[in-house]
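Following up on my earlier thread - several people asked me to post the actual chain instead of describing it. Fair enough. Here it is, all 120 residues.
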Amino acid sequence: MVTQMQQRFYTLEEYRQLEETAEFRSEYRDGEIVPMTVCTINHNRIAVNICTFLKFALRGKDAEPFMGDLRLWIPRYRRETYPDLMVIEGQPVFNEGRNDEVVNPGFTKAWIRIRKITNQ
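Reply from S.P.:
Thanks for posting it. Predicted structure:
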């Protein structure tokens, strides 16, 4: 006989409370908490290299790269995640007055600008 386990769904606030004391990071996906995989050293090297490149490429622009410790809330998909890298244009917009969670990445626009800079 196969026993099916019932999946528990969490509120965003429950997820945030659990994340504050968790030993390992997780993502929030519309009520589901999904453990994040552990990064390898090569993954980390690549992320650092890209962030360094972006930091120099965006110098003098109204955009700044951030690495994986800042959470991103995507309300349209009810998803909260720690992107390896994101670019924020202008001032960070923090979600609900928090200082660890933003809602305004602008990677697509910044990436287009970077391509223009590097292709010249």
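The helical segments are 12-21, 41-57, 107-118. That should answer part of your original question.
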